[in-house]
Amino acid sequence: MEAITEYLTNLDTQLMLSWGWKIVAALLIFIFGRWVAKAVVGFVTRIMKKRDVPPIVSNFIAVILYAVLLIMVIVASLSQLGVPIAPFVAVLGAAGLAVGLALQGSLSNFASGVMLIVFRPFLKGDFVEVADVSGSVDEVNIFTTVLNTVDNRKVIIPNGLITSEPITNFSAHDTRRVDLVIGVSYNDDLKLAREVIARVIEAHDAVLDDPAPVIMLLELGESSVDFAVRPWVKSPDYWTTRSDLLTQLKIELEEAGCSIPYPQRDMHILKLNQDANDDSTA
User: Fold this and answer.
1) What top-level class would CATH report for the domain 119-169?
2) Calpha distance 229→6 (Å, rounded)
C-alpha cells in the first residue's frame, strides 16, 4: 500500500513538474512573441513613415498586423500546452470567411480608401467630380470621402464608388482653358467680329498671355457663324472670367453692329385646302 501511495505521489509530482514547465514555456512564448510582434510592427511603421505613407493608412496596417501576429503567438502558446490547434484554426478560418462575406462592401470601400490615400488623385480643397457629384473635397477617410457642393450640401460618398468610375479633378493644374462658342449673324462682318472678340479677350485682366488665347472660325451653323474662343486663366478664376467674357462679348459685339442670332425657322404655309375648294367650285 505504501508503495502504491509513493508511486502515485511521484506520479503527481512528475505531472505537476511537467505541466509547470509547459505553463512556463507557454508564458515565455507568449511574452517573447508579443515583444517580437511589437518590434515587427514598429519596424514596419518606421518604414512606412520613411516612405511618406499617410498616418491613417499606416496606423490601420499596424493594428491589423499586430492582431495577426498576436493570434499566431497565442496559437503557439496553446500548442505548447498541448491544446489541439487544428480545431482552433478551423474556427478562425470559418469566422474569418463569415466576417469577410458580411463585410464585403466595407472591405471594398477600405481597399478603395487606401488607394485614394496612397495615390492621391485629389487632395483636400480640390474641386472634383466623382460618382456624378461635383464639389470641394473636405475629407478623405478609409471608407468614405466627404464633398461640399457649390450649394453648400455635404455629400458622403463610399470610396468604392469613386474608384470604380472616372475621377475629374478640376484643381489638378494651375491653369484651365475657357471654351466659349460665340455666334454672329451671316450678315455680319466676320473680320470685325473677330477683332471685337480679340479686343475683349485681351482687355480682361484674368486672361493669360501664355498659353496664348485662340480665336478661330469653328463652323457655319444653321443660324449663325460660330467662333471658337479659347482663352487660358488661373484655375480659381475660371467661372468668374467665363461669366465676365460672355457678358462683355455680347455688349461689345452689339455695340459694334454685330448680332448674336438665335435659332429660327422660316415657315411656308401652303393654302392647299383653299385651292381645292376653288377648283371644286369652278
Assistant:
1) mainly beta
2) 108
